[in-house]
Amino acid sequence: MFLFGKSSAMPTAESALPGRDEPVLPDPAPHAVSGRPIAGPYPDGTEIAEFALGCFWGEEQAFWGLPGVWVTAVGYQGGITPNPTYREVCTGQTGHAEAVRVVFDPSTVTYEQLLKVFWEQHDPTQGMRQGNDSGTQYRSAIFVRNEAQRAVAERSRALYQEALSRTGYGSITTEIVGPPAPPFFFAEDYHQQYLVKVPNGYCPNHATGVTLPEDFAVTPLQYVE
Question: Which residues are catalytic?
Answer without folding.
Answer: 55
